[in-house]
Design goal:
Helices cover 70% and strands 0% of the residues. By secondary structure, it is mainly alpha-helical. 14% of the residues are buried.
Length: 369
């Protein structure tokens, strides 16, 4: 990597005779501006020079990224300590690394998620098995209760009809599922088919008999979802889950100040650590967790063989140990204190992240279209 940095970062492009920086207009002493760092070279570039710039920036980034990644994974806490000591140019910025690693993780995660077709086939099979089990149950009851056998025979006939239609048209499963599932925030709005109808009815009531603000908003939302998704709760929940999963990097980032505040309390005797120092440590820690998660997802895509299962187990154990190893590497305390504080922070961090994701889900439930 140093070879690429030498060849491309210190370019051989023609230097300008003028000594004013074109970016910030500062007086340039040498080839680079001491204020903004821009190279004082001619603005007209050939195609080869553009390609050279691109390759140079690419390998410069890759060099920083992979060297930072290696240190992140095999020397927990080291990058954070380097950052605190001012040695930063040799490593990728932790925020840039967080954005990059989270984007790569979720890009691959959603690419490897089971397709909707497979989910649908599994659901059809599940519903078919449930119908067949219900038919068997009714037939057993007929043997012991002949007085009501006719109603049970009618039910069996309807269930067999459902099976026959389902075998011809898998989309019929939505009708079957709607019999069992609905947006059941409240049961007293079954007579309404739209939000407008519900609001007109509320306006016709005396003010003292109308639903309260929160109750009214929940019922309106229920009616909207029933109308929007035609009672198909499963489709809405799938969309909600996708939206929540996409918000996890944001949730982790939002959790940073809260977890950093707790770290400030837990390590209050270490006067040389400031709030921002704890935040940098957490950014590196979350970056490592994304890398572990990516490894587990990729191994899981290989199947359930012995080798993938072994690698997955190793990654899970490594991730568990890494948490405490990172605390030890950054805060430089004994193992007993590290384990106790690390365990406490693991519980608290998990609770904070779960609460933030819960509020994201709650918010999206009432805002998702």
């Amino acid at each position: 990597m140093p070879i690429f940095r030498k060849n491309f970062t210190l370019s051989h492009f023609k230097e300008r005779k003028e000594k004013n920086c074109l970016n910030c207009n500062a007086q340039v002493h040498g080839r680079f501006c001491h204020v903004c760092g821009q190279e004082n070279i001619e603005t007209k570039e050939s195609v080869w020079q553009l390609v050279s710039h691109f390759v140079g920036d690419l390998f410069h980034f890759d060099g920083k990224f992979f060297s930072s990644l290696r240190l992140l994974m095999f020397r927990p806490g080291f990058l954070s300590r380097e950052y605190l000591q001012g040695r930063r140019m040799s490593y990728i910025n932790p925020i840039r690394m967080y954005i990059f690693s989270s984007a790569i993780f979720f890009l691959i995660f959603f690419m490897l998620m089971p397709s909707n077709v497979n989910d649908g086939n599994a659901l059809v099979s599940q519903v078919r098995n449930e119908i067949e089990a219900e038919i068997d149950s009714l037939q057993e009851k007929i043997k012991t209760d002949s007085l009501t056998s006719q109603s049970k025979l009618d039910s069996i006939a309807l269930l067999k009809r459902d099976l026959e239609i389902l075998s011809l048209d898998s989309n019929y499963i939505k009708i079957l599922e709607n019999r069992k599932e609905s947006f059941s925030i409240s049961n007293d709005i079954d007579s309404f088919t739209s939000v407008e109808q519900y609001l007109r009815y509320q306006q016709s009531l005396p003010e003292k008999d109308r639903d309260g603000f929160i109750d009214s908003k929940m019922k309106q939302r229920q009616l909207y979802l029933n109308q929007k998704y035609k009672g198909d709760q499963r489709s809405f929940l799938k969309k909600l889950l996708d939206e929540v999963l996409h918000k996890i990097p944001i949730a982790l980032f939002i959790s940073l100040p809260f977890v950093a505040f707790l770290l400030n309390l837990v390590y209050f005797r270490n006067k040389h650590y400031f709030f921002a120092d704890h935040a940098i440590f957490l950014l590196h820690l979350f970056n490592a967790l994304f890398v572990f998660g990516l490894g587990i997802v990729l191994v899981g895509a290989l199947g359930n063989g012995k080798i993938p299962s072994f690698i997955s187990s190793v990654l899970n154990i490594w991730m568990f140990l890494y948490w405490y190893w990172a605390f030890k590497g950054f805060y430089q305390q004994g193992w007993i204190k590290t384990i106790l504080k690390g365990f406490f922070m693991f519980i608290m961090t998990s609770l904070i992240i779960i609460m933030i994701i819960f509020f994201f889900g709650l918010f999206l439930t009432f805002t998702i279209a």
